[in-house]
Amino acid sequence: MKSNQVSTEQIHLFLTGHGFPEKVDSAVILGSGLGDFTENLDEPESIPYSEIPGFPETSVQGHTGELFRGRLHGKEVIAFSGRFHHYEGHPFSRTVLPVHLAHVFEAEKLIISNAAGAINTRFSVGDLMVIDDIIRLFHGIAASPSEPFRYNLYPVADRVRALAAEIGLEVQRGTYIYLKGPNYESKAEIRAFRTLGADVVGMSTAPELSEASRLGIRTTAISLVTNMAAGVSAKKLDHSEVKEAAEARKEDFARLVSVLIEKL
Ligand SMILES: O=P(O)(O)O[C@@H]1C[C@H](O)[C@@H](CO)O1
Ligand SMILES: Nc1nc2[nH]cnc2c(=O)[nH]1
């Protein structure tokens, strides 16, 4: 049943044959530890990635590997609880599978999320940040060659902060620097990235944003600061912080995504 040769159209056909709608309003990609968002969906249904033809499985802790459908504010939503990272061995063309599916479901909006380390010393663990620009040190990351990054994230970031303020949430904004991982950075690297203008660092999202930009999908991306990056605090870094920070902010994260689905 599983094959890398399965097209996104065939996956769409499989999913619509299993209760998914033809089209959705919004697609959400859930970062490490943020899968609990799906508890907020009305009439949720889900299919494990392992049962979807052509879908790779996820191997990272905090990514359950399940595709959800449901409704929120009466709108059809699909949510990817688990993503595919390049460092897990997936080519970039596969890391952007959720974006391609958002496209075949004709999603009007794509909301991407991730766990990230804060480089900006004014940020704190637990902060939510809307990404207003990205730095890609590795320019091989485009899933399609020679594509410029043409999406302007600044106006969307303004709107996201305004909507967050409406529900009493303070959201930082800033630049996400993409590193291939899976190892965290050295202190010297973090100092260097600060001088480049990066506010947070992570190992996903940039390929997805590039591909969403190429496909012309209206997209925003939210980082949850799960730790201060290497050397920013004296604390030893550990993946368990991702889970703790996500657990502490999961309700606010869900409220933010919910208002974005409703009004962005
Ligand atoms: O999928 P995201 O970007 O949330 O995952 C981040 C990056 C690493 O996989 C992991 C680091 O602990 O969290
Ligand atoms: N590269 C990187 N990814 C992260 N994901 C969550 N925290 C971090 C971090 O400090 N560095």
UniProtKB/TrEMBL annotation:
Presence of the UniProt keyword Metal-binding in the record: no
Ligand binding (a purine D-ribonucleoside): E185, N227
GO cellular component, one term: cytoplasm
Pathway participation: Purine metabolism; purine nucleoside salvage
Enzyme class: transferase
UniProt keyword terms in alphabetical order: Glycosyltransferase, Transferase
CDD domains per the UniProt record, alphabetical: PNP-EcPNPII_like (cd09009)
Keyword Glycosyltransferase: yes
Origin superkingdom: Bacteria
Any matching Pfam family: PNP_UDP_1
GO molecular function, one term: purine-nucleoside phosphorylase activity
Domain Nucleoside phosphorylase: 27-261
Residues at which phosphate binds: S32, H63, R83, F84, H85, A115, S204
Enzyme Commission (EC) number: 2.4.2.1
Gene Ontology biological process terms in this record: nucleoside metabolic process
Signal peptide boundaries: none
PANTHER family attached to this UniProt entry: METHYLTHIOADENOSINE/PURINE NUCLEOSIDE PHOSPHORYLASE (PTHR11904), PURINE NUCLEOSIDE PHOSPHORYLASE-RELATED (PTHR11904:SF9)
Record function comment: The purine nucleoside phosphorylases catalyze the phosphorolytic breakdown of the N-glycosidic bond in the beta-(deoxy)ribonucleoside molecules, with the formation of the corresponding free purine bases and pentose-1-phosphate.
Family of the protein in this entry: Belongs to the PNP/MTAP phosphorylase family.
Protein name, as recorded: Purine nucleoside phosphorylase
Species this chain originates from: Rhodohalobacter mucosus
Organism ancestry: Bacteria, Pseudomonadati, Balneolota, Balneolia, Balneolales
